[in-house]
Write a structure and sequence with these properties.
This protein is an all-alpha fold. The protein is built from 13 helices and no strands. It is elongated, with a radius of gyration of 22 Å.
Length: 257
C-alpha cells in the first residue's frame, strides 16, 4: 500500500492525454510516452524563470539547510549530553516540550519573527527555521547519550583536547548513523518545502511551487503534474536507500519506535 501511490504516479506520468481522460482511470498505460516530461519546460515558459532555476533553488536550499541542520543540531546535542552545563536538563525539557507544537500552530509567530528579521523573500526564510529543529536536537542527544562514552570525552580532555576538537574528532564520527538519519529527515522536509506567503519573487521559488502551478491546470495537465512529481520523488528515495540502515540503528539506540 505504501508503494502503490508511487507506482500509480509513475504510470500516470507516462500516459498520453487520451488515456488521462478515460473514466474510470486505469492502473496501467497502453501507449507509454515521455511527452509529459518534455512538456514541462513548455508549460513553464509563461513564468518569469526557467525550470532550471526552480531546480537550482530546491537543490541549493535542501543541501545548505541539511548541512547546517546536521552541524547545529549535533553541536547542541553534544553540549546537552556531554558538557557540564548549568540548567542543561531544564533546557532539554524545553526542547522536548517544543516537540508538542506543530508547524501550523507556530505559523503566525514564526512569520512575525521572520518579518522583523528581514528574512522574507530571501533564501534565509527557507533555511534558518530548519537549522536547529527540536526533533534533530532530541534525536542526536538521545543517540549521543548511549553511543559516546563519557570516559572517552574525559580521556580527550586529559590529553589536552578542547571542546571543538573533541566534538569534531570524537563525537561526530561516533554518531554518524544519527546524523545520516537527521540528514534524511531534513532533506525530506526541505525538498518538499513550499514557503507560500513568505516568498514572493519567482526567482526564489522552488520546484514545489512549479509543481503547484502545473497542477492548477486541471486534468489536462495531470500527466505533466505527475511527471514533475516523479522528478521530485527521485532524490528523497535515493537518499533513503543510502541511509536506511542508519535509520534503523538510530531509532533503536534513541528509543524511538
Amino acid at each position: 500500500f505504501s508503494v502503490l501511490p508511487m507506482i500509480y504516479c509513475v504510470i500516470t506520468s507516462l500516459k498520453p492525454l487520451d488515456e488521462l481522460l478515460i473514466f474510470p482511470p486505469r492502473f496501467y498505460v497502453v501507449r507509454a510516452t515521455l511527452n509529459n516530461f518534455f512538456n514541462l519546460s513548455t508549460l513553464l515558459q509563461n513564468l518569469d524563470v526557467p525550470l532550471s532555476r526552480y531546480i537550482f533553488n530546491s537543490v541549493f536550499i535542501t543541501v545548505a539547510g541539511t548541512v547546517l541542520s546536521i552541524i547545529i543540531s549535533t553541536g547542541a546535542a553534544f553540549v546537552l549530553s556531554k558538557i557540564d552545563l548549568k540548567f542543561k536538563n531544564t533546557i532539554f525539557t524545553l526542547v522536548q516540550w517544543a516537540l508538542l507544537y506543530s508547524t501550523v500552530t507556530l505559523a503566525v509567530p514564526r512569520y512575525l519573527i521572520e518579518a522583523k528579521l528581514g528574512m522574507l523573500d530571501t533564501y534565509w526564510v527557507y533555511i534558518i527555521p530548519y537549522c536547529a529543529g527540536t526533533m534533530g536536537v532530541f534525536l542526536m542527544k538521545q543517540y549521543m547519550d548511549k553511543s559516546v562514552p563519557d570516559a572517552m570525552i574525559e580521556a580527550a580532555s586529559i590529553d589536552g583536547a578542547g571542546y571543538f576538537r573533541t566534538f569534531f574528532q570524537i563525537a561526530v564520527p561516533l554518531v554518524k548513523p544519527a546524523w545520516l538519519t537527521l540528514g534524511l529527515f531534513a532533506f525530506r522536509d526541505l525538498w518538499s518545502l513550499n514557503s507560500a506567503g513568505t516568498i514572493f519573487s519567482e526567482q526564489l521559488k522552488t520546484l514545489t511551487s512549479a509543481a503547484a502551478s502545473i497542477s492548477a491546470g486541471g486534468i489536462a495537465r495531470s500527466g505533466s503534474a505527475m511527471a514533475i512529481t516523479v522528478i521530485m520523488m527521485i532524490p528523497p528515495i535515493f537518499v533513503f536507500l543510502i541511509s536506511q540502515s542508519s535509520i534503523t540503528e538510530t531509532m533503536s539506540a534513541s528509543g524511538i519506535k
